[in-house]
């Protein structure tokens, strides 16, 4: 057993401990305050640290501002169809926090959560708490992913993870190979491209989305046809859905779609998925065209969903020209010498993993993912918030986090009532 900073007798008990003060944790706090449930929010950094410190300079929302729906605090600006920049997002979340008095403790790192008897012990670097309920709202972006073979790359080639990228000047002179085509990867590639940097792209299997289609933003159409209300339980393969990469597009400069074929046509050199590295040799899978085709398939699938909805509802909407592949690879390079190609840096954009090492409760599956139903675990008293597809597509975003937080807090209030009745 670890040695606690405070003696057990000095522990502080609250009904609920919330771990994490991002939009999920603070939404939970809002509803806990409304319900009159005593609680504390423990945050290892400062609230909304990820928005303030872990985003690049040109970062903006990919979804339009109208989808920002924190509890009783929808977007109230004058550009609902625009895309807030990083500083505007911080202003928005801080404005939400100003609407209530959260019992927040910043600079407190949770090191252990364990069920002892009927209560949870929550050990931190600032003391020991106990609670009847624990809400885990720490997010899924703790551990940046790099493949094992990255360690075999020539150390003269700099390796930067997307979490550390802020601006093109962070990247060493020379050619940068961006690895990964999720939302961060394509936007960081574009950031470097706009800055006139020599950049190349290793293309993974991420899907892409239209931005503006048949007179409206594609996300507006998807909301209207009910896509965002579909729950994880309604998906044909929930586990596969949870693991999917987000569709890539951009909110930059008013929003636009990203067709990597157009970049290639204009001179961007692209490869397939990175398969291995050794010294200055980088190897790729011969899947570039397959990955581009897969991205286009998802893009066309969304267009078809919108077309079907327009036809079904008899909506008068402008027609769009058919999609054209403006470029395709004649051959695929499967091995390059980075030194000979002038590649001086790798920008890894292949995702993150959560860190639940401190959570000593039987609530994770063999992949380390939480076992829950809309954030409520079978392990009584443990809850999760803020994860992608916790309940719907919007669960990990401003769109759906409030509804999930309200649902979890309602469950806590009901259990607290049952416990009081039972003890009475």
TrEMBL record:
The alphabetical list of record keywords is: Oxidoreductase
Q: Which Pfam families match?
A: Pyr_redox_3
Q: Which GO terms describe its molecular function?
A: flavin adenine dinucleotide binding; monooxygenase activity
Q: Does the keyword Oxidoreductase apply?
A: yes
- Name of the protein described by the UniProt record: Putative flavoprotein involved in K+ transport
Q: Specify the species.
A: Loktanella atrilutea
């Amino acid at each position: 057993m670890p040695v606690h900073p405070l003696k057990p007798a000095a522990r502080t008990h609250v009904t609920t401990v919330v771990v994490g003060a991002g939009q999920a944790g603070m939404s939970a706090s809002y509803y806990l305050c409304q319900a009159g449930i005593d609680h504390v929010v423990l945050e290892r950094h400062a609230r909304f640290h990820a928005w303030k410190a872990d985003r690049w300079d040109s970062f903006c929302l990919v979804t339009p501002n109208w989808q920002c729906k924190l509890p009783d605090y929808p977007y109230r600006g004058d550009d609902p169809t625009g895309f807030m920049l990083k500083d505007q997002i911080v202003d928005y979340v801080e404005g939400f926090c100003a609407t209530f008095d959260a019992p927040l403790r910043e600079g407190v790192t949770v090191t252990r959560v364990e069920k002892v008897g009927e209560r949870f012990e929550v050990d931190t670097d600032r003391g020991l708490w106990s609670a009847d309920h624990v809400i885990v709202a720490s997010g899924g972006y703790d551990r940046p992913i790099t493949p094992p073979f990255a360690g075999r790359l020539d150390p003269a080639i700099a390796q930067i993870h997307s979490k550390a990228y802020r601006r093109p000047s962070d990247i060493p002179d020379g050619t940068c190979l961006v690895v990964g085509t999720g939302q961060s990867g394509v936007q960081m590639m574009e950031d470097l491209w706009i800055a006139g940097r020599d950049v190349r792209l290793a293309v993974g299997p991420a899907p892409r989305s239209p931005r503006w289609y048949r007179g409206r933003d594609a996300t507006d159409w998807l909301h209207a046809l009910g896509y965002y209300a579909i729950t994880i339980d309604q998906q044909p393969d929930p586990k596969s859905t949870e693991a999917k990469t987000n569709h890539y597009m951009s909110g930059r400069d008013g929003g636009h779609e990203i067709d990597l074929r157009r970049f290639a046509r204009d001179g961007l050199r692209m490869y397939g998925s990175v398969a291995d590295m050794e010294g200055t040799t980088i190897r790729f899978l011969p899947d570039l065209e397959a990955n581009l085709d897969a991205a286009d398939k998802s893009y066309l699938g969304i267009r078809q969903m919108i077309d079907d909805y327009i036809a079904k509802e008899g909506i008068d909407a402008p027609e769009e020209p058919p999609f054209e592949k403006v470029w395709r690879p004649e051959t695929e390079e499967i091995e390059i010498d980075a030194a000979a190609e002038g590649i001086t840096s790798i920008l890894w954009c292949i995702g993150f993993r959560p860190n639940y090492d401190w959570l000593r409760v039987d609530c994770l599956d063999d992949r380390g993912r939480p076992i829950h139903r809309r954030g409520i675990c079978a392990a009584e008293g443990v809850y999760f918030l803020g994860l992608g597809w916790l309940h719907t597509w919007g669960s990990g975003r401003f769109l759906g986090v409030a509804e999930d937080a309200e649902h979890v807090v309602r469950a806590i209030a009901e259990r607290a009532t049952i416990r009081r009745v039972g003890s009475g």
